[in-house]
Design a protein that fits this description.
Order of helices and strands: EEEEEHEEHHHHHHEEHEEH
Structural class: alpha+beta
Largest sheet: 4 strands, mixed
Number of helices: 9
Radius of gyration: 20 Å
Strand content: 5-15%
Number of strands: 11
Distance between the termini: 24 Å
Helix content: 40-55%
Strand order of the largest sheet: 1-5-6-7
Shape: globular
Length: about 350
């Protein structure tokens, strides 16, 4: 299994990245802020607008270090990676499945089964952990709806039906998401999911977490030799990492939503970490992003037992394991793709 290395995050917008020998150098107005050896890095993520030198981009591509550029709000902009590796036969089979509606639906269905199952257990665990602080009957009703949706997903026969079931499940899950915010209620509230732009503090953090998670999934898929742009649930679109988004779906609630709730409920972040733009968009400031990313890295190092492999792994390795299992399915080593079922 691939070793989980480090990711360098650049949160200040005016930092420029350059190369000096075997080191990435972080500059601000031509003054060196820090340097990190390239051999210590698996990925670099920057929220700055000053960019990176061509020499660094080339070095990252040669060493298979993914260099990702995000906007200040955390929206994905671009990604530099090296030449495609892996078995060309694996990718050809991936494209065949993507073009075959029945086989594509089988994979998409399992991804959405994972998404709805995990969302259900977010609600169930909340009821178990905070029975005196939540409207248990209300949340149990939503959980029951998700259970019924799981049955429908297993038997759905077309992509349009699956998309409808996924949307209804997400709507029901998010309808009680605000109930799961137990601290700082005067500052953090959630009414609905708003994406472009995020319109409140909670949505700003959710969007940022989803972007980081999608980047992890894309890198994992490339590592095992798959094309992150050829998906089975999300439709093809220029520049859209459809397969990475497919994989992100099943991991959203357990890796991103729970993480955001933890930051709020444990008061690791507060309302002072956000700014509001004239168009209503809400963004995290530099300090909030640093806090967010520090705890995100710690979260990735926590140990869990993978439900399919029945082995202990780090949370940060889950996207890679799922990519590996998907590759095994495409090669014909598994009868179906096993989604990540958390409990």
């Amino acid at each position: 299994m691939k070793k989980l290395l480090n990711t360098l995050y650049i949160t200040s917008p005016n930092r420029y990245l350059s190369l000096d020998g075997e080191n990435v150098v972080v500059l601000e107005k031509e003054t060196e802020i820090s340097r990190v050896p390239l051999h210590n890095l698996e990925a670099i993520v920057t929220c700055g607008y000053t960019g990176a030198s061509p020499a660094l981009m080339a070095a990252c591509a040669q060493r298979d270090i993914h260099l990702t550029f995000l906007s200040r709000s955390g929206r994905f902009l671009a990604r530099v990676s090296g030449e495609f590796r892996g078995n060309i036969l694996l990718r050809k089979e991936q494209y065949k499945i993507a073009m075959d509606h029945e086989r594509s639906l089988a994979v998409a269905r399992n991804c959405i089964l994972g998404k709805v199952y995990n969302a259900k257990w977010i609600l169930e665990r909340a009821c178990r952990d905070y029975p005196l602080r939540l409207d248990i009957e209300k949340i149990k009703r939503k959980s029951q709806y998700l259970s019924e949706t799981l049955v429908k997903i297993k038997t759905c026969t077309n992509a349009a039906q699956l998309l409808g079931l996924e949307g209804e499940a997400a709507s029901n899950y998010f309808s009680v998401f605000d109930d799961l915010i137990l601290q700082q209620k005067d500052m953090f509230s959630f009414q609905r999911r708003s994406r472009r732009p995020p319109l409140d503090y909670v949505n700003a953090m959710l969007s940022f977490a989803y972007t980081l998670l999608t980047g992890m999934c894309a890198g994992s898929l490339e590592t095992v030799g798959l094309d992150p742009y050829a998906g089975f649930f999300h439709t093809d679109r220029p520049g859209r990492m459809s397969l990475a988004l497919d994989m992100t779906e099943e991991l959203r609630s357990v890796m991103a939503d729970r993480f955001v709730l933890t930051l709020i409920n444990k008061k690791m972040i507060d309302a002072g970490g956000f700014i509001q733009k004239e168009n209503g968009a809400v963004l995290m400031n530099d300090e909030a992003r640093k806090t967010f990313l520090t705890h995100w890295q710690l979260k990735k190092q926590e140990i869990i037992r993978h439900p399919f492999l029945d082995e202990k792994i780090e949370w940060g390795m889950v996207p890679y394991v799922q990519a590996m299992l998907l590759a095994r399915y495409i090669r014909g080593d598994l009868e179906e793709y096993p989604p990540f079922f958390w409990k």
